[in-house]
Design brief:
2 domains; 17 strands; 10 helices; about 375 residues; alpha+beta; globular; FAD/NAD(P)-binding domain; six-stranded antiparallel beta sheet; Elongation Factor Tu (Ef-tu), domain 3; about 20% strand
């Protein structure tokens, strides 16, 4: 029997052998969801993701598709009284890959939908890799394609060369803001003789959050520590970049007033300390971050404090005196386009209608909203 000819060897920039009809740039939440919607509609997809091909962003840790770089929460899952919960339900009804993976890898979080971030990303990656209509290519795209149907879903951490190409095509400067990442603590380093389990602000019957109580004196000292702590220094061109209000560094919020945190992420309402039977003056809450329950993230504690300052200051929180950190907080600059001016009603770039944009690069906020933008972009392209 004659030997079968071997498959041709091609590099990452060679046109794919499959009959690709839509090229998606970016394998985050929006890009992954758009790829799934197109593939399920019978449309071939080439999904280009630079992570895994030798490149990395300022915030990602690995090369899995749909990696969550900040919180592990998709926020409220209550479809009856919360807009985000309603969006969850609508996306499930539209066969959302992102929601299916989130449901399969959820961890306890009260009425919120939180996920084991590694299991979630692995599930999205596996389902897309197994789909016959999807080709995943680990490559960096440096310029907007001149032809063919394209969806740009590179998120706010778009590589510099492609960001420059987008700027040249749109003729307008990108808007920008800073986003921050919260620390993650090893569960076995938390002192549960001081902390206790309860629901978020004692809402609901579950006890899914670890609570670290503070007296007034402890809180005031911690607040001053946030103000005095050494922080990341900005370069000159970054000086006027605003913060994303939905993920503001805790020290920036603290600077707005001594009680700002007590009415925000450190709100003690409804949380009776079992040792005193009373609400503490303030409370730090931690939410489960992985399915094993070994990692917990500090809710609302995204920060631009330098790493040494984070360890020193956060170990002054009662119950976290011996905390070991799996990840410390960080800060990164996000960019996005001026969508109301640049895109039409189906997310096409007015100056180049073969190109659509989806996800956070369009200026939307949040994991769920980004995935939803990918969902509708994919369906628009399929249509």
């Amino acid at each position: 029997m004659a030997a079968r000819p071997s498959a041709p060897v091609r590099n990452a920039l060679t046109p794919p052998a499959v009959n690709t009809q839509v090229h998606i740039i970016g394998g985050g939440l929006a890009g992954s969801e758009a790829a799934w919607q197109l593939a399920e509609a019978g449309v071939g997809v080439r999904l280009s993701e630079m992570r895994g091909g030798g490149d990395m962003t300022a915030a990602h840790q690995g090369d899995g598709l749909a990696e969550l770089v900040c919180s592990n929460s998709f926020r409220s899952d209550d479809a009856n009284s919360n807009a985000v919960g309603l969006l969850h339900a609508e996306m499930r009804n539209l066969d959302s890959l992102i929601m299916a993976a989130a449901d399969a890898h959820k961890v306890p979080a009260g009425s919120a939908l939180a996920v084991d971030r590694d299991g979630f990303s692995a599930a999205v990656t596996a389902r897309l890799a197994a789909h016959p209509n999807v080709e995943i290519v680990r490559e960096r795209i440096d310029a907007l394609p001149a032809s063919g149907l394209v969806i740009v879903a590179t998120g706010p951490l778009t590589a510099a060369a492609l960001a420059g190409s987008i700027g040249a095509a749109t003729g307008s400067e990108a808007l920008a803001f800073f986003d921050a990442i919260a620390p993650i603590v090893h569960r076995d380093s938390i002192d549960m003789d001081v902390c206790w389990m309860a629901s978020r602000w004692d809402k609901g019957d579950t006890k899914d959050y670890i609570n670290c109580p503070m007296t007034k004196e402890q809180y005031l000292a911690f607040h001053q520590g946030l103000l005095d702590g050494e922080k990341t220094e900005f370069r000159q061109w970054e000086q006027d970049t605003p913060y994303f209000e939905g993920c503001m560094p805790i020290e920036v919020a603290a600077a707005r007033g001594v009680d700002t945190l007590r009415f925000g992420p450190m709100k003690p309402v409804g949380l009776d300390d079992p040792r005193t039977g009373r609400w503490p003056h303030a409370v730090v809450q931690l939410r489960q971050d992985n399915a094993l329950g070994t990692l917990w993230n500090m809710v609302g504690f995204q920060t631009k404090l330098k790493h040494g300052e984070q360890v020193r200051l956060f170990r002054t929180i009662p119950g976290l005196e011996n905390a070991e950190f799996a990840r410390l907080g960080g800060l990164h600059r996000n960019t996005f386009i001026n969508s109301p001016q640049l895109l039409d009603e189906t997310l096409r770039l007015k100056a180049a209608p073969h190109i659509r944009f989806a996800g956070q690069i369009t200026g939307c906020e949040g994991y769920v909203e980004s995935a939803a933008m990918g969902l509708i972009a994919g369906r628009f392209a399929a249509a």
